[in-house]
């Protein structure tokens, strides 16, 4: 049994937070003693954390101010490996590891396309973290764990990081028995009592997710009875609703907010769409594949091409091209639902907990065994 530590800012509603909570539980399943340390504390996904995972909250007011407390914790508690997630947390963890003398055991991870993600958060300290992180990645003893080949290549191509400074580990997105589990009934009324085709998307309402392109593509569909549901919350809610009204599809479009059971909603839909402008390894796409529901995705940097095997599993369309997206969705809606269902399920299998956790153990410990 190895003693492992995961360092995160909190367990908020983001995909990285969800995956780190899942990874903690999967590492316990693999026979390890796991602690999840939150630099601040709380968050939506705290309720879903495996009770066998030890949780520590430093309650720092800001992530950047957590360095002294984290250094004290690392000095007082010896772990076989320490894993930090997200760029600004990585920088804090590196500083604390240096102060505590534990840098040799620290591993950091990048969850998104670095060259795109660095422009998203305007916070000054986050911007500073993105500036200094590539230099630190070149200097630290362990390679940066990236969630996809594309994320790793992007880091090498656009920063000081070298190929030897990166490695890859898959997200633990799915339960090991996902093929045998029913996702349960959906909650949305359009999915409970369907009167026509229903298209579903899931994600934060932010520019990265390209939901404005999706709404334009939806408005261009020849099927005037189709409906579109986007599950998620974010700052673009009012803008997206205004766009739907302008395009005359407001009565067939809904933003019901965050859903705790996205698989149930996607499983009942006729098509799932990932319209993102960039990603790391989109977990929502993997979850959609696991339901067998037909999917369409943009060929965005850097996850869909890998997950969908270059378009063999499901259609890939150019980013910010509503006409191409509309045509691909229309094709999926007119194709028998079960066509390529097994291919979609097979593509999702790689991201089962048991499979993915071995890639992390190999990266953290140098061996796929615990």
UniProtKB/TrEMBL annotation:
Chain ranges of the Glycosyltransferase subfamily 4-like N-terminal domain: 14-173
SUPFAM superfamilies linked: UDP-Glycosyltransferase/glycogen phosphorylase
Source organism superkingdom: Bacteria
Keyword vocabulary terms for this entry: Glycosyltransferase, Transferase
Protein name: Glycosyltransferase involved in cell wall bisynthesis
Species classification: Bacteria, Pseudomonadati, Pseudomonadota, Gammaproteobacteria, Pseudomonadales
């Amino acid at each position: 049994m190895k003693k492992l530590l995961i360092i995160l800012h909190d367990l908020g509603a983001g995909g990285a937070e969800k995956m780190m909570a899942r990874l903690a539980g999967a590492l316990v399943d693999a026979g390890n003693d796991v602690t999840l340390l939150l630099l601040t504390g709380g968050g939506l996904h705290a309720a879903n954390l495996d009770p066998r995972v030890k949780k520590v909250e430093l309650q720092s007011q800001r992530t950047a101010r957590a360095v002294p407390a984290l250094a004290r914790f690392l000095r007082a508690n010896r772990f076989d490996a320490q894993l930090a997630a997200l760029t600004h947390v990585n920088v804090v963890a590196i500083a604390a590891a240096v102060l505590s003398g534990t840098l040799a055991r620290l591993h950091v991870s990048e969850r998104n396309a670095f060259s795109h993600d660095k422009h998203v958060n305007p916070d000054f300290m986050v911007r500073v973290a993105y500036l200094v992180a590539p230099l630190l990645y070149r200097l630290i003893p362990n390679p940066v764990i990236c969630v996809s080949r594309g994320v790793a290549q992007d880091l090498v191509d656009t920063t000081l990081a070298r190929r030897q400074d990166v490695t890859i580990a898959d997200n633990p997105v799915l339960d090991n028995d996902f093929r045998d589990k029913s996702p349960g009934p959906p909650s949305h009324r359009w999915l409970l009592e369907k009167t026509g085709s229903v298209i579903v998307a899931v994600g934060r309402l932010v520019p990265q997710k390209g939901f404005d392109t999706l709404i334009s593509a939806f408005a261009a569909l020849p099927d005037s009875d189709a409906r579109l549901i986007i599950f998620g919350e974010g700052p673009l809610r009012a803008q997206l609703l205004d766009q739907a009204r302008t395009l005359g599809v407001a009565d067939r479009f809904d933003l019901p907010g965050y859903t705790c059971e996205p698989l149930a909603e996607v499983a009942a839909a006729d098509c799932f769409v990932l319209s993102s402008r960039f990603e790391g390894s989109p977990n929502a796409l993997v979850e959609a594949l696991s339901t067998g529901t037909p999917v369409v995705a943009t060929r965005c940097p850097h996850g869909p091409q890998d997950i969908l095997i270059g378009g063999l599993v499901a259609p890939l369309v150019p980013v910010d091209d509503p006409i191409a997206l509309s045509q691909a969705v229309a094709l999926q809606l007119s194709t028998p639902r079960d066509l390529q269902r097994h291919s979609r399920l097979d593509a999702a299998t790689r991201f089962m907990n048991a499979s993915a956790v071995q890639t992390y153990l190999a990266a953290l410990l140098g061996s796929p065994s615990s």
